[in-house]
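pasting for ref
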Amino acid sequence: MSTDDQAGEKAVLTELRRAGANQYDLGSFNEAVIIETIRLAGTISRTEISRRTGLTQQSVSRILRILLQQGLLVEEAQERAERLGKPRTPVRMRSNAAHAVGIHIDPELLTVAVVDLDGTIVRRETVDLADDLDAGRLVDLTAATVTAALSISQVDLDSMLGVGVAVPGPIDADGSLLALPLQPAWRGLKIRQLLQQKLNHPVLVEKDGTAAAIGERWIGRSARARDFAYLYLGTGVGSGLILNGSIYRGGTANAGEFGQIAALRMGEWDAENGPRMVPECNPTASLPVIAAEYGYVETDPSATDEAKRYKAVCKAAADGDEAARKAVTQVARVVGQGAVGLVDLLDIDLIVLGGPAFGKEISEIFLAEIGRAVNAHPVARETRPVEVEESMLQTDAAAVGAASTIFHDAFTPRVSGSSQARRLPK
């Protein structure tokens, strides 16, 4: 574990220890504190759990006994302690002790993933969505795809904790879709309620950028045990925020509208003197257009739709096409200006880049351009460097992130009454 990882984990665990020590009831909250400690560490001894959490070894042993009996944890082979020579038996979370389904609903593609506690995809299904797909058929198709994925995966349904759904925002607090880009026919769809009725599992709905940030925190363990903003490149550019060790959703679950921040940074205004959405914040649509303005000529006859044209330009940029590289650089610079706004507003020192539109072909340009922007332009740039890193979740960030929202809800410690607490519906 690197020094930065240790520092991030220490900060999280300090907060957990402080909260745990002030609890009169040593029940579910301290169980969650211990689970979080084990999750961050991967494999850890009882003595180390006690040291990191501030709980007594008796309390740790009692809680671990319960979690082992429940099958959530497993013991590793005994290790010999360095000083006293006493054997110790580390514990870790059992990856197949719990599962969740992650659903990513994009205007063009439905992705369903059955995911275990380690974030491993047990089964993945994708379905292309027709342009004229109405809301009712979307719900039926989604439910049928989830049912099929669970059946093929053969996971024990008793281990299923729930279903997470990632969608482009905005949404309302009850998980209904509002003004979705490219699919006005889905506006007002009560997707959480309808899917929960059809699947008979608890359902949570998050914006795709928020879901990806939760997944990054869950899968990243100690490497992501710190505050960060996740820039999600998909149908538009969104963001998810991890602040004070937990997801920040905002008052209506719509925090992270990145396009507005980028527009304000760029000084782009519409006819009503409001922020005008800049084309670069919808890269899948704008990148081929921008590339053509620089003189790029499409040579792939199969690139007939928006997604294929976008991928063709990305590949051309990676292959050294000057016009394509200029276009990718322009998009990255605008996104970088929005990232500066996040860094200034939140005083964070980590930006994570991911999402289905963030491919290997453009990662070098994006990492360099955004890294330069967030280290050159923020007001407090002299106080700390800002790291810009590639997501650990790759193209399935939203689907794995959506499943991780279920794990996050079930296992992450939270102070009762927190504005960010969000429990699975019954």
